[in-house]
Design brief:
By secondary structure, the chain is mainly α. It has helices at 13-21, 28-45, 49-60, 63-70, 74-81, 83-94, 99-115, 119-143, 147-167, 169-179, 204-207, 235-249, 253-262, 283-295, 298-315, 321-330, 344-364, 370-399.
Length: 405
């Protein structure tokens, strides 16, 4: 329906703010928001413009954003662009104790986040934010202090979230009404062949169709480890040549059909049925993020590590059903969304953040001894080099150039 794509709601002030921020032509507007949003997050975390600029570059140049822009997923990249400033507002409250400023920033970007109208991305972000909340809760439980700050901060953020949601009430209510009549609503027909997540969720098989392969996750560090796009230039001609060769040498039509069914794409051989390209974060970014988990303060590294690990496991979808089924069956609203591989956007936000926080701490935290720094660099650097050598030597046998069907 029209209200899903461009309807104007009466009194929709937050959308006017969104339009003002998107003053550049598409897709430059999204790229501007990606870079500028992370710059705000970086200033909140490290308060040094040089490290912040580096982090914004890491985040803004993630290949996934350019892939989804080229695929026409404007709402998705628009929503992701507000990830960083929303997280900045939350950190201002919890970490920096800037209550009024944090409240204002969180309220504004919560409203803009929902106005961008891709609720799946917002939902995934809040899975990551949940780890920040748990980290703060565990911290005050262990210290048996700072209860006042935790209570005030949580109350302020809860109010900010409610106000941000309230700004979009018309949009959310309209979307809720429409969703009931789609595959995300209640199932009115029974089909034993279908694997439903529940009586009011998507078909489980459809939900998990675009699941990232476990080794395919290495795309974050090594580009094109399972190929590139499944429809790259020249792939159609290659497939036609292969099919002609099969047709000439097969002994029966059944054999031809079986072989054709086994072919996915000559340019992509991962677990997904198809892809527009690999989600490459960057080798430097991943390495610095890895170091960041050793050098960053505890108030950052534990919740970022937990959120990143869970996001990766959820991205595996049908390839890691023990976690996927748990979320589908017991976590509210999770069964409304498909393509679990897209939750990797949370990792693509958090890796640059922990990278610059760790880098800043490495050069400025006097509590880190030179001996400790050298030991971490030696072991981490040696481990990464050993891993790369293993991939060079055994990569072909480990990864192969085929897709199981």
């Amino acid at each position: 329906p029209t209200y899903q794509t461009g309807a104007q709601f009466r009194g929709d002030v937050i959308k006017h703010v969104d339009n003002a921020l998107n003053f550049l032509p598409k897709p430059a507007n999204y790229l501007f928001l990606l870079f500028a949003g992370f710059f705000l997050l970086g200033l909140t975390a490290v308060r040094n413009w040089k490290y912040t600029l580096l982090g914004a570059t890491f985040f803004g140049l993630s290949t996934y954003f350019y892939i989804i822009i080229s695929a026409g997923h404007n709402g998705k990249v628009h929503t992701i662009a507000y990830f960083a400033p929303l997280l900045a507002g939350i950190l201002l409250v919890y970490i920096r104790k800037k209550y009024l400023l944090g409240f204002a920033v969180t309220t504004l970007f919560m409203g803009l986040q929902i106005a961008a109208n891709h609720f799946q991305m917002t939902y995934y972000l809040f899975i990551g934010i949940g780890f920040l909340f748990l980290s703060e809760l565990i911290r005050v439980l262990l210290k048996k202090s700072d209860w006042k700050h935790f209570g005030i901060s949580s109350g302020i953020l809860a109010l900010a979230f409610l106000l941000g949601i309230g700004m979009n009430s018309q949009r959310l209510l309209a979307n809720r009404e429409y969703a009931e009549e789609t595959v995300r609503g209640k199932q009115i027909l029974e089909d034993e062949k279908q694997n439903h997540a529940s009586k009011d969720g998507m078909n489980r098989d459809a939900m998990l169709m675009w699941s990232y392969g476990k080794l395919e996750t290495l795309n974050l560090f090594i580009p094109r480890i399972y190929g590139g796009s499944s429809q790259e230039k020249g792939s159609d001609r290659i497939m036609q040549n292969i099919q002609d060769l099969v047709q000439e040498n097969a002994t029966s039509q059944e054999e031809v059909d079986n072989i054709r069914e086994g072919f996915s794409s000559p340019t992509y051989w991962g677990e997904q049925p198809g892809t527009a390209g690999p989600a490459y974060q960057g080798a430097v970014v991943c390495f610095l993020a890895f170091l960041g988990f050793f050098f960053a303060p505890k108030k950052y590294k534990y919740w970022i590590l937990g959120a990143s690990m869970l996001a990766i496991m959820l991205a595996w979808g049908s390839n890691f059903l023990i976690v996927s089924n748990l979320f589908i069956d017991f976590v509210p609203l999770y069964n409304k969304f498909r393509a679990p591989s897209s939750i990797l956007v949370v990792v693509e936000l958090l890796f640059p953040l922990i990278a610059i926080v760790g880098l800043y701490s490495f050069f400025n935290n006097k509590n880190l001894t030179t001996e400790y720094k050298q030991k971490v660099l030696m072991y981490a650097g040696g481990g990464v080099l050993a891993f790369l050598l293993l991939m060079l030597i055994f990569g072909k046998s480990l990864l192969g150039f085929y897709t199981e069907t």
